[in-house]
Amino acid sequence: MRVLVLVDGEHYPPVTRWGIDVARTLGHEVEAALLVGGVEKIDPRRPPDLGVPLRLADGDPAGALARALDELRPEGVLDLSDEPVLGYRERMELAAVALARGVPYLGADFRLDPPIAGPPLPVPAVGVIGTGKRTGKTAIGAETARVARERGLRPVVVAMGRGGPIEPQVARADEVHVEALLELVRRGEHAASDYLEDALTAGVTAVGARRAGGGLAGAPYATTARAAAELAVGLGAGLVVLEGSGSAVPPLPWDAGILVVPATAPPEYLGGYLGPFRLLLSDLVGV
Description:
Layout: E1 2-7, H1 13-25, E2 29-35, E3 54-56, H2 61-72, E4 76-79, H3 88-100, E5 105-106, E6 111-112, E7 125-130, H4 137-150, E8 155-161, E9 169-171, H5 178-186, H6 194-202, E10 205-212, E11 222-223, H7 225-234, E12 239-243, E13 256-260, H8 268-271, H9 275-280, E14 284-286
Parallel strand pairs: 1-2, 1-4, 2-3, 4-5, 7-12, 7-13, 8-10, 8-12, 13-14
Antiparallel strand pairs: 5-6, 9-10, 10-11
Helix pairs in contact: 2-3, 4-6
């Protein structure tokens, strides 16, 4: 794997070089290093020689990492830094920058993979994600679909959920009524799934998908969301509205993102953990 390594001045340079050499023995091709901060064990007037091209963060590690990723296009970021230069919050912020650009973030005892992967859909897509359950994603997704319908964009909503159907299921607006819902119950299926609510309240076609589990960055452990999105395209969608589930995000690329946050959300849900990752994915935040 071609990697960009993150290093700091709290390590003695020969030790950092040794760490880079160890990374090579583990199969990593180190393209460059980014000095994220710290001057305790280096000469601040002269960048250390680490045996690879060295870039300086100059007080802005997140911005420097973003620029390095855009220019070098590595396959991963390998974090060889540590406290106190990169504390818990700072490390998660850098991980968010990498994940938002589709780059895995690796360290001594962890690996975070981007939850969004694979090719984009052949039609425009809007992602609607949240910081957790009951944030209002379905309401915002349905309103997005209503606005798109009024503009003649032929929207189809794809909603993945923890009670979704076994296979992607199509619900047309005129097919969601009491008898149809009762029939779902009789078959032992979830008759209050989000895709049914979307079809009913937005007046558009919706496709239901399922997902199980959710990772730190929002990746479902298993989901049928991509198959559902491809089905939506096959139905003639001019715009696909991709709804997340809880804090899980749709696992395929979108063109514009909406993040829905409840007013009661702890500040750490946005500023800490991997909250910055969700912000970086979004063009609009609704509270």
